[in-house]
Amino acid sequence: MKNIGYTLLITILLSSCSEYQKALKSEDIATKFKLGTELYDAGKYSKANKLFAQIVPQYRGKPQAEKLMFMYSNSFYNMRDYYLAGYQFERFESQYPKSEKAEEALFLSAKSFYMLSPVYSKEQKETVTAIEKLQMFINKYPESEYLPQANKLIQELDYKLERKAFEIAKLYNSIANFESADYEASIKAFDNFLLDYPGTSFREEAMYYRFDSAYKLGINSVEYKREDRLNTAIKFYNSFHKAYPESKFSSEAAKMNSELQTAVQQYTKKS
């Protein structure tokens, strides 16, 4: 019985493959549309996509074109070909703005760009594009059922940009341990970061590392710039301590501030 069942399964699979191959070679676009739809509904998106690709041009202007173009776009999405999915969904929404699928298509187009966004440590061009596409969707469909999802995706993408900027600024601080000239670059980078992301979850660390860079720059400074740099470092410490008096960095920061105060007193005695 097992052998009979196995043989029957093989026969069905071969028959199915044969039907698919015939459809691919057929000149009958209706056959391709019908089988492609059946494969799409069965979740066989790659096979459906190949059939759809052959008939998209011939169906332009026909009543079935709208359904075909949405399935074609969505097959790319389900195949995880997000470049083409994003493009095709956006094209669908543009061509069929009154379609009941238009809103979903534009959301899935934006989400496709979100899926292309890399980890924070890499170049973030795709992340910026994804934010723009999602915002465009929100602006066009402010009452959409997809609005909560779109806002959540934007928050995740914003966090990537925030994390990227913070890590770059922190890297300057690390490099500065070896090349003192980079302490100024580190301070500038943290200044820009705090200005660009005032509500950042990295604010405490950013303010500490800005102070740390200013401290190292002041302590290791050339003599004629030393007093100004020491006072700048103390200013950064006061801002940090005021904002985060119970910080995990408080103990280390207080030690550095004490050293700065001692160094500044030397100038007071001289004058």
Protein described:
The chain is mostly helical. The chain has twelve helices and no strands. The protein has helices at residues 2-25, 29-41, 45-55, 65-78, 82-95, 102-116, 125-140, 147-175, 182-196, 203-219, 223-243, 250-270.
Helix content: over 70%
**What is the strand tally?**
0
* Rg result: 30 Å
**Any idea what the shape is?**
rod-shaped
The residue-averaged pLDDT reads: 91
Distance between the termini: 104 Å
| Spans of at least 5 consecutive residues with low confidence | 7-14
Structural class: mainly alpha
The profile of the biggest β sheet is: none
Q: How many alpha or pi helices?
A: 12
Sequence of secondary-structure elements: HHHHHHHHHHHH
What percent strand?
Answer: under 5%
Question: Key terms for this structure?
Answer:
271 residues; mainly alpha
